[in-house]
Amino acid sequence: MKKNACIMLATLSLLACSPQEKAGDNNAEFDYSVEKFADLEVLRYRVPGFEELTLDQKKLIYYLQEAALQGRDILFDQNGKWNLPIRYTLEAIYTGYKGDRTTDDWKAFDTYIKQVWFANGLHHHYSSDKFLPAFSQQFFTDAVNSIDASTLPLRDGETVQQLLDSIMPVMFDPTIMPKRVNQADGQDLIATSACNYYSGVTQAEAEAFYNKMKKENDPTPISYGLNSRLVKRNGQIYEEVYKVGGRYSAALSRIVEWLEKAATVAENDAQRAIINKLIEYYRTGDLKTFDEYSILWVEDTNSQVDFVNGFIESYGDPLGMKASWESIVNFKNLQASERTHLISENAQWFEDNSPTDNRFKKEAVKGVSAKVITAAILAGDCYPSTPIGINLPNANWIRAAHGSKSVTIENITDAYNEAAKGNGFNEEFVWSPVELELIEKYGTITDNLHTDLHECLGHGSGKLLPGVDPDALKAHGSTLEEARADLFALYYLADKKLVELGIISNDTAYKAGYYEQIMNGLMTQLVRIEPGKDIEESHMRNRQLIAAWAYDLGKADNVIEIAERDGKHYVKINDYDKLRQIFGKQLAEIQRIKSEGDYEAGRALVEKYAVKVDAKLHAEVLDRYAHLDIAPYKGFVNPVYTPVLDADGNITDITIDYTEGYPEQMLRYSHDYATLPVYND
User: Fold this and answer.
1) pLDDT score for 13
2) Alpha carbon 252 to chain centroid distance?
3) For 507-534, what is the mean pLDDT?
């Protein structure tokens, strides 16, 4: 599970830019901001400590980052079957167009291609709504016809006009593939979603296919459907498995080649075994092998360099089963990890003292580890939009038997923090100087602690009752799981145990985290929603679910108030102690829903609190936010790693450079990491 970058609390989620020192040159400024367009800002992140790693560790990171970048095209194809041919067409125009680049049409085209790059496809990375071009169809037609046809993604025998006839309706018609992931209750979620995890099957057929495969009371169930596309052809339903020799073979073969190189410089035998098991999984596509890999990975807590590479998270599948491809390469921040080490060391205490029913608690918490990491490369579904925390593996039985590994990605949060300075957001939306002072003094530490507790303990807490299907909550599973982890974190953020452990300095700091959580859930996250739209994205649903439900539960005691001043509305928290009690009640109920697999209760909560938006408040928030000129979404370009070679071709060092621009990086990646055929059907 991920804690998405866009779900950071208000001080981190809505950002501007500010210069900071340049890595490797303490006297120079590090410019975090790369460029802004549409509702997006692209940032840079530093990789402090890289220069101090050993040569073999640097080589390991280099090989792993190459393995990471080889998978880029996989995500584009998973997000929609037309994404790759359209991306290549757009890039051919971007590099080959010789017309006037000062017109409104060209400016709109420039924005559109940058949106497509950022989203890894035609649909917004967060809302999943399709981008509609602001340039004219005539401009696009003329632009395509004006460039060298050999640069276009033409099939054998296909004309330029036939290409246009194929892709233009997908781009310009708002009724064709309008949403990448549809979560609207009562609809066929597969038929109404543009993602490319299914072909020719209905939601009912897909659910029946996997239900038939599942073994009742299986203590070690595989993650059914995780690494495959489900298709129906000639009346037969079958899986196209992602593996070498299967679907995405060309990309996975390249990934394997770089993993094999990484294995030669592994830090220890345990890490080498992890890499080799991942290679075996990619070659076979066997999900039992993936579980074996996950167990090896979670049990390796000694290696300083670490990585995620694979089909991991299922947010992109409307049924919450099939995983998108992602990778993060990182190394441990030894000093900051002392905080997470203390938390994970006391995991049993937190489990035992949770306000949940004892039937749903783990009798013995196993293998919970946590660390603060420095991201070295981001790829796939972690790029350009980037999580700030990760807890893996996702399989419940592995968590119960072998534990989980949690990370907080601190150089990414640092980049957000530096970029957020002085943007005026808090001054506009926070109720009073009291709350402003709290956030200024404690916002950063409570944000980091919230991530630590969410990932390390929240996702790792609790258990399913015997016989409960891990997929019982169906399409609402992701929302409810994120809410469960968030509530666990919120409940303990105010616990004196954190002061006792020396993790936080006083027992009032938590109020900054509570205020930001409620303000974001009730108001400020609405800047990401278009007028008239419901909330669709799982993390956003989670935040509104918690805040709106808490508001409702505390209404009799006026725990949370929507106050008005000078015609503007603000969140006021009148009783922080009672709010903590409410968080405890919410956690207990959502844990019950998950442990018992109570789909109807979970569905009712989500539909009542998490989906609908107050239109008047929404309009007000959008208007106030517009005056701040802040992009509501952020993402990153990666640093560039270059091997230094001696006369014999041996690597003697790896250098790191932060100067590559956004279009330059995207075009280079499309050229250097074009690992898949343009058409994959």
Assistant:
1) 35
2) 21
3) 95
Can you read off the two tokens belonging to residue 126?
């967060």
Name every residue whose Cβ is closer than 8 Å to that of residue 389 and which is 6 or more positions away in sequence: 2, 3, 406, 407, 408, 409, 451, 452, 454, 455
**Mean pLDDT confidence for 4-23:** 35
Each residue's pLDDT tens digit, 141-164:
999 999 999 999 999 999 999 999
Q: Within a 10 A sphere around the Cβ of 230, how many other Cβ atoms?
A: 22
Among 7-11, 107-111, 280-284, 399-403, where is mean pLDDT lowest?
A: 7-11
Instruction: Give ∠ CA 195-284-239 in degrees, rounded to 5.
Output: 35
The pair of structure tokens assigned to 521 is 């859930």
Which among 317, 124, 32, 501 is positioned nearest to 492, based on CA atoms?
501
Q: How many CB atoms lie within 10 A of CB 468?
A: 17
Instruction: Give the pLDDT confidence score for residue 4 in this predicted structure.
Output: 61
And the tokens for 413? 């949060």
Q: Are residues 401 and 16 in contact, defined by beta-carbon separation less than 8 angstroms?
A: no
**Low-confidence winner among 21-35, 542-556, 571-585, 597-611 (lowest mean pLDDT):** 21-35
**pLDDT category, 573, cuts 50, 70, 90?**
very high
Q: Coil, strand, or helix at residue 586?
A: helix
Q: Identify the bridge partners of residue 562 per DSSP, sorted by sequence position.
A: 571
Q: Both tokens of residue 238?
A: 């079958």
User: pLDDT digits over 356-370, tens only?
Assistant: 999 999 999 987 888
Sign of the C-alpha dihedral computed for residues 102, 106, 110 and 111 taken in this order: positive
* Bridge pairing between strands 25-30 and 20-22: antiparallel
CB 613 within 8 A of CB 533: yes
Q: Are 413 and 8 in contact (CB under 8 A)?
A: yes
* pLDDT classification of 451: cutoffs 50, 70, 90: confident
Q: Compute the mean pLDDT over every residue in the chain, rounded to the nearest whole number.
A: 93
Strand partners, 307: 329
Dihedral, CA of residue 244, residue 246, residue 250 and residue 254, to nearest 10? -20
Q: Is 82 strand, coil or helix? A: coil
Which residue shows structure tokens 């649903």?
A: 541
Asked if 491 contacts 510 with a C-beta cutoff of 8 angstroms, the reply is no
DSSP-H helix ranges across 264-299: 269-284, 287-299
Give the integer Cα–Cα distance in Å for 514 and 672: 45
The Cα angle at residue 526 between residues 539 and 519, in degrees rounded to 5: 80
Sequence-ordered alpha helix ranges (H) in 494-553: 496-500, 510-522, 538-553
Structure tokens belonging to residue 402: 């072998």
- Of the candidates 220, 513, 497, the one whose C-alpha atom is nearest the C-alpha of residue 347 is 497
Separation CA 601–CA 590 (nearest Å)? 9
Query: What would the mean pLDDT of 420-441 be, rounded to a whole number?
Result: 92
Distance CA 610, CA 541 (A): 5
Burial class (CB in 10 A: 0-12, 13-18, 19+), 219: exposed
Compute the average pLDDT of residues 508-535. 95
Strand partners, 371: 407
Q: How far is CA 91 from the centre of its chain?
A: 25
| Nearby residues of 623 by Cβ (< 8 Å), 6 or more positions away | none
275: helix, strand or coil: helix
Of 178, 34, 110, 102, whose CA–CA distance to 631 is shortest?
A: 34
Res 455: pLDDT: 85
Are 208 and 220 in contact, with CB atoms under 8 Å apart? no
Give pLDDT tens digits for 17-64: 222 233 334 434 889 999 999 999 999 999 999 999 999 999 999 999
C-alpha 156/C-alpha 175 separation (Å) is 29
